[in-house]
Amino acid sequence: MMKLDMSALETQFGAPAGEDGGLLFDVDGAAMPAMEFPNCPDFDRFQAKTKDMVKNKRGTTTLAFIFDKGVIVAADSRASMGGYISSQTVRKIIEINPYMLGTMAGGAADCQFWHRNLGTKCRLHELANKRRISVTGASKLLANILYSYRGMGLSIGTMIAGWDEKGPGLYYVDSEGARLKGNRFSVGSGSLYAYSVLDEGYRFKMSVEEAGELARRAIYHATFRDGASGGCVSVYHVGPDGWKKLSGDDVGELHYQYYPVQKTPVEQEMTDASTS
Amino acid sequence: MARFDPYENNGGTCVAVAGDGYCVVAADTRLSVGYSILSRDQSKISELADKCVLASSGFQGDIKALQKNLAAKELVYEHNHNKKMSCPAMAQLLSNTLYYKRFFPYYTFNVLGGLDSQGKGCVFTYDAVGSYERTGYSAQGTGAKLIMPVLDNQLKSPSPLLLPAQDAVTPLSESDAVDLVKDVFASATERDIYTGDKLEIVVINSSGIHRECIELRKD
Predict the structure, then answer these.
(1) Total of domains in chain B
(2) Is A60 a catalytic residue?
(3) Distance between CA B48 and CA B42 in Å, rounded?
(4) Where does the record place the catalytic residues (chain A) (predicted)?
(5) Does A136 touch chain B if contact means CB atoms closer than 8 Å?
(6) In this predicted complex, what is the ipTM?
(7) Per the CB < 8 Å rule, is A18 touching B96?
(8) Which of B7, B96, B101 sits opposite A21 (nearest CB)?
(9) A102-125: buried (b, 16+ CB within 10 Å) or exposed (e) per residue?
């Protein structure tokens, strides 16, 4: 039987993190077992079958980029379970702490759980070291956890964006174990559409409003063409004083802002006729 | 070669609607396997705390295990903290409990309803492995796809993600919400073979938890 590395679930204090549902330390008597695994001969086929059966929430477009005034982070808000839209109001930009954001793409439960876990670890780092954790450090913590679960079927494509002592930082981390430092990323089923708009409009020197508008437009175009993306576009800016939400817009309304309805000549004549 | 096949879908639908000062949680009571009905009177609802009620549909074995598991954890919390768990706290506990079985999931589709610490109604909706979100209303289970569009039509309010924030529409009164829930279940029963027999409605408000049972079509 393969021995799996559970060290990612342990805190410095020895008790597995998240035991007793959200509490960190081993409270008397309420020991929770480490993650259970089914006792079956073919683990991979079982995982593939459960994945199809359970149809976890997923699907997204998220993006983030660095420019001269910090980092812009944007995402849509749709979650789909198979072909069913399970929610249009999902928070895909997770506030790890007041100066660091994480984005969520892929399996919703995986992203939510591991980001919450990352937030806890970042806080513990602050308490243990009397200084904030860097973006490099936070992304490395997450990447190491995800690497140890590589091949188990986790689905996470996330970006860690923040402002630390070295200035703005942006890392892409995924469940295959990749961790990439970069200036521009888009992740999710709609990322191809977002990349087109983002790459075309990107310049390093932009005002915060221009950068926010670029991000909003990129996500909007992704929601237009990708069925698994939609809902509201949320845009955040991370500056030296931390993150701030710039805008939250319904994509249905954004569509008519970008592409207002053109009245056809026939319609125009009819309104003239009725007023004359 | 023996295939490990521990799951089955016992059907059923759960709905929860939150309002200002109340929360309605409802579920049908039919237990099915394939085309057979095994029971017309199997409850899917569990009262976890005095302001917190869980309704689960899916595989009955996992539902029972999950609900017992949560009730036990809630009791431990009470003993440690000398108070009952609040609904948002239970929401995160349920999420973690579900995620801890990420590689051998509880085949349950849950809806948690109750009052938050300010006394306002809250509904938390889950997928099978623990992703959760606080919403104003939700439906889960075999009849969810029939019910959610109707709830969206009646109850949808501007997204909480909008900036500048927009006010939510005036929520329904408690009796209107209960009537709406009865109506959506009556409709779902017409078109979903796994939903029917009886409807259990649990209302949580400041004066406590009240139960009501109404008959649904048994065919």
Answers:
(1) 1
(2) yes
(3) 17
(4) 60
(5) no
(6) 0.91
(7) yes
(8) B96
(9) bbbbbbbbbbbbbbbbbbbbbebb
| Cβ-defined contact of A89 to B145 (cutoff 8 Å) | no
Q: What is the DSSP letter of B195?
A: S
Contact B60, B31 (CB under 8 A): yes
- Residue range of the domain that includes B40: 13-216
For the domain that residue B40 is a member of, what is the CATH number? 3.60.20.10
Q: Note whether residue B3 is domain-resident.
A: no
Contact A112 B95 (CB under 8 A): yes
Which of the residues B103, B122, B153 would you substitute to probe the A interface, choosing the one with the greatest number of A C-beta atoms within 10 Å?
B103
Where do the domains of chain A lie?
A: 61-258
| Contact check, Cβ <8 Å, A112/B97 | no
Distance, in Å, from the CA atom of B44 to the CA atom of B56, rounded to the nearest integer, reads 6
pLDDT tens digits for chain B (219 residues)? 667 889 999 999 999 999 999 999 999 999 999 999 999 999 999 999 999 999 999 999 999 999 999 999 999 999 999 999 999 999 999 999 999 999 999 999 999 999 999 999 999 999 999 999 999 999 999 999 999 999 999 998 888 889 887 766 667 899 999 999 999 999 999 999 999 999 999 999 999 999 999 999 999
Considering the segment(s) A61-258 as one domain, its CATH architecture is 4-Layer Sandwich (3.60)
Of A142, A147, A155, A160, the residue nearest A58 (C-alpha) = A155
Chain A stretch 8-37, residues whose beta carbon is closer than 8 A to a beta carbon of chain B: 18, 20-22, 27-30, 32-33, 35-37
Task: Decide if B183 is inside a domain.
Answer: yes
**Cβ distance of A109 and B102 shorter than 8 Å:** yes
- On whether residue B1 sits in a domain, the answer given is no
User: Token pair 């091949």 is at which residue?
Assistant: A151
B-chain CB neighbours of A234 within 8 Å are 161, 163
